[in-house]
Amino acid sequence: MIIESLHMKNFKSHQDTSIDFDTGISIILGGNGAGKSSILEAVSFGLFKQYTSKKIEQLITIGQKRMSVEIQFTSHGRTYRVLRERSKTSSKAIMKIKEGGRFQSLVSGDRQVTMEVQNLLDMDGDLFLNAVYVRQGEIADLIEKTSSEKKQMIGRLLGIDSLEKAWKNIKIILDRYKEEKIRLEGRIESSEGLKDEFQTKKHKQKELSIQIKDINLKREENIIESDLLREKKEILDRRSLEFEKSTTILKSKTDFLEQLEKTKKDLDNQLSEIIIKEEEINRVKPRLKKLEVLKNLQDRIKELKDLQKDEKKIVKIQDDIEHFRDILNENEQYYNDYSRLDDEINNLQYAKDQFEGSRVLIQQYRERRSKVEVKINQSLEKINRVLEKNNQILSTEFESVEEFQDHLSTFKPQLEEEIQDASESIQELKRELSNLQVKSENLDKPIKELERVKELCPICKSTITPQKRDELITDYQSELENNHQRSEILKEKLKGIEDKKKNLDTQHFRIQSINLGILNEYLKSVDENRQEIKNINSNLKELDEKMVILEKIEKDIAQNKSKLQDIKGNYEKYLAARGSLESLGDYEEHLSGLDEIKASIRELKKKISILMEIAGDSMENLPGEIAYLEDLSKKYQHLMGEISQKDSLLRRMDENQRLILDTLEELKEVQKVVEDSKYNKESHERVKKEWELKNEELMDLSGQKQLLVGQLHQLSDSIQTIKEKLNSLQEYETELKNLKDFLKLLNLIRDIYGKDGVQKDLRNLSRPLIEEKTRELFEKFNFEYSDVRLDEDYDVTIYGPGGESSLDMISGGEKIAVALALRLGITQVLSGGSLEMIMLDEPTIHLDAYRRQELIDLLKRMSIIPQMIIVTHDADLEDAADNIMKIEKEEGNSFLAES
To answer: Are residues 6 and 115 in the same domain?
Structure first.
């Protein structure tokens, strides 16, 4: 299988990422957390719906409702495309195949698509991950891990760990079924005495049935006798009921007659009382006619007094209005003066507020000027200290920075020129000394040669005489001495020039420490601060002018406030009088009201005069007379209420007399019925007693029967329970036999899944295949080794020119090659030898720098697998890549930044 493209939409941190893959080595590069590994997970999800999140909903980008993954790949020469979509509540999957340049639908649905991919690639999702997906650290683990750890890791890749897990899980199942076996054996053992108990209770059930039958016969006989007594009793009961009813009616009628006689007497007494009250009403009624006249007179007198009070009140208000008007006239001028002064004060206060900030500003400016003056003095002191130090360096006595700068601008270039001249002279003298030294060495060589070989010329190699030899030696020595003398002169001159240059260098070094920039900064700071003081003084001048105006305003305000205080009392009198006038109302309205009240008083006095004539002597104690007549009126009303019941009382007396006559007739009839009755109470009581005794005997038989029936039911339930237990016992025995057979089968299956079963067979079967594939792959790296072998624990042994070697005995690069070949060999075996693509997740992790570089070099030379996809944050792997894709992440969104 070769992956051609992958498109992720809202998959984890990838909102919309499309990647085109090619053959060769493709590097997916990015920092930790950038979303690289999500690409490999998207491949696994697209093909097999495999994912690492706890819930599939966690694959959807946070804040989104739906995600999708579309992967296009080739297999067996055909091109396929798989699309999987997922929301939080639904899913969709479709697989298409390319036919004639267009994609045609092949299957749809999650399960159907997954099955089609498994059939096409001949592997399921787990096998795909183990075969094609090389996890982080697996290559390093194949080098660094112990034998048991490597064996466990390879077992996981081969799926052997699932067999081990099954072997362990079967033990849990075995223990559970063994517990069930012990439980069944206990139940069977505890049920051994049930059969004897069942027979005993069956015999007891038969005895109880016979006893119940005997009791039923006795009850039937008693029921017949009881029925006869009951019929006789019911006849006597009816007679007793009739006798008691007649006797009760007789007593009731007699009592009712007595009550009627008593009522007749009471009604006669009430009628006598009403007649007396009628006579009293006739005496009171004439006297009540004067009450209305007296009450009317009393109301008019009260009304007259109220009007006279209102008259006095209005007169008082009119007097107050005239008084307050006088106060207003007296203080009106003061009121006007006060208002005018108050307005002037407010205007002056507003003007004062405009200038009030000037005081604060003056204080702030003065404080700021003091601080700036301090800074100027500090800067001048620093300038003087620096200038004094620089004068000491140059041995000068300049008092101004400008003079010092002018001197330094001339002195420094001259000094540098002198240093340059001295350096050139030194170099010239050193070259001349070097030449003299070479010449001396050239002269010294022939002298030594002449001293060693006395007959030959050291230059031309011709024969010479002793005289000539001595002459040559003398000439060479003379020239050598001249060179020596010249060298001494030059050395002395060189020393003098070097000492001079040293002094010049020292002086130049000291000049280098002179920093005119600092002086300029200090001067600049002084100029700026002086300019600021100038600005402050200008602002203070303007503020002083404003202060003159402010002081005049404050003086005017004080004078006006003093005047205001002098007339404040008159002003307040005016305000109080005006407020009082406003509350008293209009004078003319009060005058009109007074006229109306006086007219009403005159009219009212006329009415009172007329009423007084009618009242006569009663005027002497008008309230007492009214109170006496009102009490008399209440008594009259009370008597009228009582005599209003006279008609009703007469009707009741007639009705009571009629009832007395009717009751006397009814009493005669009831007495005749009682006399005609032939009821015998003693005979009746004897029959009732006999019937009750027979019922008690019958009840006792019913109780005995009920008890026996209860015992029988309880015994039947117990027999049924024992019967069910016996049936269960038979089921338990059958279940126990089946369980023992099943335990034998489980033990057999567990042995098959154990280390010595299928696990061992699978290792023995896969190890030679892995060894063969590893050998084939390792040979392609062109190392000088002839063979690679794997033992039962998958420890590696290699054979080369030096013989047999373990992993610990070979170089780091060779170890990486063996680990990579072993991992790819496992992949080849798992994929059936048709591996076209492999994915590596951070292959360099846990490797040191040397081994990481060795792995990169191996990957560069690899042409074993058509397509290799590597996810990494290691930028060094770019050297081994045919295609590079860089993944970046911004604000939680991963995207393809460069490819």
So the answer is: yes
Sign of CA dihedral 287, 289, 295, 296: negative
Identify which of 66-80, 242-256, 272-286 has the greatest average pLDDT.
66-80
pLDDT at 462: 62
Closest to 36 in 3D by CA, of 887, 890, 895: 887
Q: How far is Cα 49 from Cα 51, in angstroms, rounded to an integer?
A: 7
Annotated binding-site residue numbers = 12, 32-38, 136, 457, 460, 809-814
Structure tokens at 725: 């237990």
Q: pLDDT tens digit string along 374-399?
A: 988 988 888 888 888 888 888 888 88
Could you report the per-residue pLDDT of 216-240, keeping only the tens digit for each?
777 777 777 777 777 777 776 677 7
CA geometry: angle 606, 611, 616, nearest 5 deg: 130
Question: What residue type is assigned to position 222 of the chain?
Answer: N
**Is residue 145 in some structural domain?**
no
**Annotated binding site for Zn(2+): which residue ranges?**
457, 460
The residue assigned the tokens 């990494």 is: 872
Cβ proximity of 398 and 380 under 8 Å: no
- Annotated binding site for ATP: which residue ranges? 12, 32-38, 136, 809-814
Contact 105, 80 (CB under 8 A): no
d(CA 204, CA 208): 6
Q: Which tokens belong to 124?
A: 């399921």
Amino acid type, 528: E
* DSSP tally for the chain: helices H, then strands E: 19, 15
353/501 same-domain check: no
Q: Are residues 363 and 434 in the same domain?
A: no
Judge if 305 and 417 occupy the same domain: no
Contact 84, 48 (CB under 8 A): no
- 666 domain residue, yes or no: no
**How does residue 106 score in pLDDT terms, banded at 50, 70 and 90?**
very high
Distance in angstroms (rounded) separating the CA atoms of residues 856 and 848: 12
